[in-house]
Write a structure and sequence with these properties.
heterodimer, A: mainly beta, 11 strands, 0% helix, B: mainly beta, 5-stranded antiparallel sheet
Chain lengths: 114, 111
């Protein structure tokens, strides 16, 4: 059972470079999310999607872009990497929102911008 | 003021002790309350959820919500070294579909 799969697991970027963090889920979940986790700061929502073709900003969207062309995939794009984007990024998916919502998380991508 | 506050720890206890974890929140519109467990270098996984004031038990875990004080707790009885992890509270507000996480408390259970 794959669940939520993120690639890559680790990446070092230079300032100004761009990259795409990949996220795929095989649970047919409509809802998908991208979070970043900084030490002691909890998870901050970057973007989320309630279905294919629909995306919306979370708390910290600046510097990122997303797309949702299929139910399974929800890639996160960093266009001009900055040191402030050094973090651990988690993709998650859920069947619904609210009570009984369990968000399933991927293993995370550790990104360092130097 | 953060919407959800959680002591970062670390909280170190001997095996078999009761672990007590707390979160406070500021927005009374929050409706559903969850606890996630995150092992080192892994994604969080849901432990428990509740939406009402009072206690909810699941095995060695008890989640407690006090909406009047805006305070939620997680108790782990008979703690085991395998309980060593970071525990994050998460609170959901239906209006705006917003799930807000606390910063997490790191717990270490020593054999």
């Amino acid at each position: 059972n794959a669940g939520v799969t993120q690639t890559p697991k680790f990446r070092i970027l230079k300032i100004g470079q761009s990259m795409t963090l990949q996220c795929t889920q095989d649970m047919n979940h409509n809802y998908m999310y991208w979070y970043r986790q900084d030490p002691g700061m909890g998870l901050k929502l970057i973007y989320y999607s309630v279905g294919a073709g629909i995306t919306d900003k979370g708390e910290v969207p600046n510097g990122y872009n997303v797309s949702r062309s299929t139910t399974e995939d929800f890639p996160l794009r960093l266009e001009l990497a900055a040191p402030s984007q050094t973090s651990v990024y988690f993709c998650a998916s859920s069947y619904s929102l609210g009570l009984n919502t369990e968000a399933f998380f991927g293993q995370g991508t550790r990104l360092t911008v130097v | 003021q953060k919407e959800v506050e959680q002591d970062p720890g670390p909280l170190s206890v001997p095996e078999g002790a009761i672990v007590s974890l707390n979160c406070t929140y500021s927005n009374s519109a929050f409706q559903y309350f969850m606890w996630y467990r995150q092992y080192s270098r892994k994604g969080p996984e849901l432990l428990m959820y509740t939406y009402s004031s009072g206690n909810k038990e699941d095995g060695r875990f008890t989640a407690q919500v006090d909406k009047s004080s805006k305070y939620i707790s997680l108790f782990i009885r008979d703690s085991q070294p395998s309980d060593s992890a970071t525990y994050l509270c998460a609170i959901y507000k239906a209006a705006g579909n917003k799930l807000t996480f606390g910063g997490g408390t790191r717990v270490l259970v020593k054999p």
